[in-house]
Amino acid sequence: MSNQLSIKTTVCSEYQRFLEECQGALEIWNKRRDEFSQSGSIKTEEGDELLRLQANFARAYAVLQHHSRDCELCDLVSRIEGRDSENSWEAFSDNTQYV
């Protein structure tokens, strides 16, 4: 997967930009979630902020996925690599389940 990502980011500057936005949104969401979980109970305002940050990540990820599917260069890289661009969630997932 990382080989495919590095090829896409080399070939397509838009993919690189969308990927950076997606990673940034995920990092902010994770950081705030960790901060709130360490403080103990989560207040309503904090819960609302986490939902907003989660939505920001979901939106950025959707843009990345749509671009990856609609961009001829990114689609070509996916086909050359023999991978389905729709399965790139693995790049962001640490397989942790949050309840």
Brief summary:
By secondary structure, the protein is mainly α. 74% of the residues lie in helices and 0% in strands.
Distance between the termini: 27 Å
Q: What is the averaged pLDDT score?
A: 81
Strand content: under 5%
Q: What integer value in Å does the Rg equal?
A: 16 Å
* Integer count of domains: 1
Q: Give the H and E element order.
A: HHHH
Described by the principal axes of the CA atoms, the overall outline is elongated
Low-confidence spans = none
Fold and architecture overview:
The chain has one domain (2-91). Helices cover 74% and strands 0% of the residues. The protein has helices spanning 2-11, 13-38, 44-70, 72-81.
Please describe the topology of this protein.
Layout: H1 2-11, H2 13-38, H3 44-70, H4 72-81
List descriptors:
99 residues, mainly alpha, elongated
